[in-house]
Design goal:
Belongs to the N-acetylmuramoyl-L-alanine amidase 2 family. The chain is about 40% helix and about 15% strand. It has about 220 residues and is α/β, with parallel strands linked by helices.
Protein backbone atom coordinates (compact mmCIF):
# COMPACT_ATOMS: atom_id res chain seq x y z
CA UNK A 1 0.00 0.00 0.00
CA UNK A 2 2.76 2.54 0.83
CA UNK A 3 4.39 1.76 -2.52
CA UNK A 4 1.11 2.43 -4.33
CA UNK A 5 0.75 5.76 -2.55
CA UNK A 6 4.28 6.74 -3.51
CA UNK A 7 3.59 5.87 -7.14
CA UNK A 8 0.34 7.85 -7.15
CA UNK A 9 2.06 10.80 -5.50
CA UNK A 10 4.86 10.64 -8.05
CA UNK A 11 2.39 10.64 -10.94
CA UNK A 12 0.53 13.58 -9.42
CA UNK A 13 3.76 15.54 -9.11
CA UNK A 14 4.66 14.74 -12.73
CA UNK A 15 1.23 15.84 -13.94
CA UNK A 16 1.51 19.06 -11.95
CA UNK A 17 4.95 19.77 -13.41
CA UNK A 18 3.64 19.07 -16.92
CA UNK A 19 0.73 21.45 -16.35
CA UNK A 20 3.11 24.16 -15.15
CA UNK A 21 5.28 23.70 -18.24
CA UNK A 22 2.23 24.03 -20.51
CA UNK A 23 1.00 27.15 -18.71
CA UNK A 24 4.43 28.77 -18.82
CA UNK A 25 4.82 27.93 -22.50
CA UNK A 26 1.39 29.39 -23.28
CA UNK A 27 2.21 32.55 -21.36
CA UNK A 28 5.52 33.00 -23.17
CA UNK A 29 3.88 32.49 -26.56
CA UNK A 30 1.18 35.00 -25.67
CA UNK A 31 3.78 37.53 -24.58
CA UNK A 32 5.74 36.93 -27.78
CA UNK A 33 2.59 37.50 -29.86
CA UNK A 34 1.89 40.76 -28.02
CA UNK A 35 5.47 41.93 -28.52
CA UNK A 36 5.33 41.01 -32.21
CA UNK A 37 2.02 42.85 -32.62
CA UNK A 38 3.49 45.94 -30.97
CA UNK A 39 6.53 45.82 -33.24
CA UNK A 40 4.27 45.52 -36.28
CA UNK A 41 2.18 48.47 -35.11
CA UNK A 42 5.29 50.57 -34.56
CA UNK A 43 7.06 49.66 -37.79
CA UNK A 44 4.31 48.91 -40.33
CA UNK A 45 4.64 51.68 -42.94
CA UNK A 46 1.07 51.33 -44.25
CA UNK A 47 0.40 51.65 -47.97
CA UNK A 48 2.42 53.64 -50.50
CA UNK A 49 0.23 56.70 -49.87
CA UNK A 50 -1.53 56.22 -46.54
CA UNK A 51 0.18 55.64 -43.19
CA UNK A 52 -0.78 52.68 -41.07
CA UNK A 53 -3.78 53.76 -39.02
CA UNK A 54 -4.51 52.04 -35.70
CA UNK A 55 -8.25 51.47 -35.92
CA UNK A 56 -10.84 52.03 -33.22
CA UNK A 57 -11.22 48.35 -32.41
CA UNK A 58 -7.47 48.10 -31.88
CA UNK A 59 -7.51 50.69 -29.10
CA UNK A 60 -10.76 49.31 -27.64
CA UNK A 61 -12.89 52.37 -28.41
CA UNK A 62 -16.30 52.67 -26.83
CA UNK A 63 -19.23 52.78 -29.22
CA UNK A 64 -20.45 56.14 -30.44
CA UNK A 65 -23.87 57.19 -29.17
CA UNK A 66 -24.61 59.32 -32.22
CA UNK A 67 -23.15 59.79 -35.70
CA UNK A 68 -23.36 62.84 -37.97
CA UNK A 69 -21.91 62.34 -41.42
CA UNK A 70 -19.83 64.92 -43.22
CA UNK A 71 -19.96 66.02 -46.83
CA UNK A 72 -16.70 65.38 -48.65
CA UNK A 73 -14.23 66.47 -49.78
CA UNK A 74 -13.36 68.70 -46.83
CA UNK A 75 -11.33 71.85 -47.43
CA UNK A 76 -10.05 72.59 -43.92
CA UNK A 77 -7.83 70.71 -41.45
CA UNK A 78 -7.32 71.92 -37.88
CA UNK A 79 -4.39 70.80 -35.71
CA UNK A 80 -4.74 70.44 -31.92
CA UNK A 81 -2.84 68.95 -29.02
CA UNK A 82 -4.33 66.96 -26.16
CA UNK A 83 -1.98 68.40 -23.48
CA UNK A 84 -0.69 66.08 -20.77
CA UNK A 85 2.29 63.76 -20.98
CA UNK A 86 3.64 62.25 -24.17
CA UNK A 87 3.05 58.53 -24.67
CA UNK A 88 6.12 56.53 -25.66
CA UNK A 89 4.80 53.12 -26.75
CA UNK A 90 1.86 51.89 -28.79
CA UNK A 91 0.30 50.47 -25.62
CA UNK A 92 0.61 53.72 -23.65
CA UNK A 93 -0.68 55.73 -26.63
CA UNK A 94 -3.72 53.44 -26.87
CA UNK A 95 -4.44 54.07 -23.20
CA UNK A 96 -4.10 57.81 -23.75
CA UNK A 97 -6.47 57.80 -26.74
CA UNK A 98 -8.99 55.78 -24.74
CA UNK A 99 -8.62 58.28 -21.90
CA UNK A 100 -9.36 61.16 -24.28
CA UNK A 101 -12.48 59.39 -25.52
CA UNK A 102 -13.61 58.69 -21.96
CA UNK A 103 -13.17 62.35 -21.00
CA UNK A 104 -15.05 63.56 -24.07
CA UNK A 105 -17.94 61.17 -23.52
CA UNK A 106 -18.25 61.16 -19.73
CA UNK A 107 -17.12 64.67 -18.79
CA UNK A 108 -18.14 66.65 -21.86
CA UNK A 109 -21.20 64.54 -22.63
CA UNK A 110 -20.22 64.10 -26.28
CA UNK A 111 -21.25 61.13 -28.40
CA UNK A 112 -17.65 60.07 -29.09
CA UNK A 113 -14.06 61.24 -29.12
CA UNK A 114 -13.98 64.70 -30.65
CA UNK A 115 -11.05 64.29 -33.05
CA UNK A 116 -11.07 62.63 -36.44
CA UNK A 117 -7.52 61.36 -35.91
CA UNK A 118 -4.84 61.45 -33.23
CA UNK A 119 -1.08 61.22 -33.70
CA UNK A 120 1.44 59.72 -31.28
CA UNK A 121 5.24 59.84 -31.55
CA UNK A 122 5.10 57.72 -34.72
CA UNK A 123 1.57 56.38 -35.15
CA UNK A 124 -1.80 57.55 -36.39
CA UNK A 125 -4.88 56.57 -34.40
CA UNK A 126 -8.37 56.61 -35.85
CA UNK A 127 -10.66 58.83 -33.79
CA UNK A 128 -14.01 59.16 -35.51
CA UNK A 129 -12.18 58.85 -38.83
CA UNK A 130 -13.06 60.32 -42.19
CA UNK A 131 -16.72 61.00 -43.11
CA UNK A 132 -17.91 62.03 -39.63
CA UNK A 133 -18.38 65.43 -38.00
CA UNK A 134 -16.17 65.81 -34.95
CA UNK A 135 -16.33 67.96 -31.84
CA UNK A 136 -12.93 69.61 -31.77
CA UNK A 137 -13.54 73.33 -32.41
CA UNK A 138 -16.88 75.06 -32.00
CA UNK A 139 -18.11 76.69 -35.19
CA UNK A 140 -15.75 74.71 -37.43
CA UNK A 141 -16.65 71.06 -36.85
CA UNK A 142 -19.05 70.61 -39.75
CA UNK A 143 -16.55 71.60 -42.43
CA UNK A 144 -13.18 70.47 -41.09
CA UNK A 145 -11.06 67.51 -40.06
CA UNK A 146 -9.61 67.73 -36.54
CA UNK A 147 -6.25 66.09 -35.87
CA UNK A 148 -4.78 66.05 -32.35
CA UNK A 149 -1.18 65.32 -31.39
CA UNK A 150 -0.89 63.38 -28.13
CA UNK A 151 0.95 65.49 -25.56
CA UNK A 152 1.57 69.08 -24.49
CA UNK A 153 3.43 70.86 -27.25
CA UNK A 154 3.96 74.02 -25.30
CA UNK A 155 6.77 72.05 -23.64
CA UNK A 156 7.35 69.07 -25.97
CA UNK A 157 8.75 69.16 -29.48
CA UNK A 158 6.93 67.05 -32.07
CA UNK A 159 8.99 64.10 -33.27
CA UNK A 160 10.10 63.87 -36.88
CA UNK A 161 8.09 60.66 -37.27
CA UNK A 162 4.92 62.28 -35.94
CA UNK A 163 5.25 65.12 -38.46
CA UNK A 164 5.87 62.58 -41.21
CA UNK A 165 2.75 60.71 -40.07
CA UNK A 166 0.76 63.95 -40.36
CA UNK A 167 2.08 64.58 -43.87
CA UNK A 168 1.19 61.06 -44.98
CA UNK A 169 -2.26 61.24 -43.41
CA UNK A 170 -3.00 64.48 -45.26
CA UNK A 171 -1.68 63.05 -48.53
CA UNK A 172 -3.86 60.01 -47.89
CA UNK A 173 -6.91 62.22 -47.40
CA UNK A 174 -6.34 63.90 -50.75
CA UNK A 175 -5.72 60.56 -52.50
CA UNK A 176 -8.93 59.09 -51.06
CA UNK A 177 -10.97 62.15 -52.01
CA UNK A 178 -11.59 63.03 -48.36
CA UNK A 179 -9.70 66.34 -48.60
CA UNK A 180 -9.61 68.84 -51.43
CA UNK A 181 -6.20 69.10 -53.12
CA UNK A 182 -6.01 72.75 -52.02
CA UNK A 183 -7.14 72.13 -48.42
CA UNK A 184 -6.20 74.76 -45.84
CA UNK A 185 -4.24 73.82 -42.73
CA UNK A 186 -4.73 75.76 -39.47
CA UNK A 187 -3.65 75.60 -35.88
CA UNK A 188 -6.66 75.72 -33.57
CA UNK A 189 -5.34 78.94 -32.00
CA UNK A 190 -5.85 80.75 -35.33
CA UNK A 191 -9.58 80.16 -35.15
CA UNK A 192 -10.34 80.32 -31.44
CA UNK A 193 -8.82 81.70 -28.24
CA UNK A 194 -6.77 78.67 -27.16
CA UNK A 195 -3.12 77.72 -26.81
CA UNK A 196 -3.70 74.55 -28.85
CA UNK A 197 -1.78 73.08 -30.65
CA UNK A 198 1.01 74.42 -28.44
CA UNK A 199 3.71 76.85 -29.57
CA UNK A 200 6.32 74.23 -30.50
CA UNK A 201 3.94 72.22 -32.67
CA UNK A 202 2.33 75.32 -34.16
CA UNK A 203 5.77 76.54 -35.27
CA UNK A 204 6.09 73.37 -37.34
CA UNK A 205 2.51 73.57 -38.63
CA UNK A 206 3.29 77.01 -40.05
CA UNK A 207 6.08 75.46 -42.13
CA UNK A 208 3.59 73.25 -43.97
CA UNK A 209 2.82 74.21 -47.56
CA UNK A 210 -0.95 74.12 -46.87
CA UNK A 211 -0.81 76.31 -43.77
CA UNK A 212 -3.06 79.31 -44.28
CA UNK A 213 -2.58 82.60 -42.47
CA UNK A 214 -6.08 84.13 -42.55
CA UNK A 215 -8.51 82.66 -40.01
CA UNK A 216 -11.80 81.64 -41.61
Amino acid sequence: MPTTRVLLLGRAVMLLMLLLVILCSTGVRGQQRQQQQQLEEEDDPGTSVCPRIIRREQWDAERSTNVTYQLKPVAKVIIHHTTGDRCTTVASCKEMVLGVQSFHQKQNGWSDIGYNFLIGPAQVFEGIGWHRVGAHLRGHNANSIGIAFLGNFDVLRPTARSLEALDRLLECGVALGELTPDYRLHGASQLQSTNSPGRLLYARVKEHSHWTRPAD
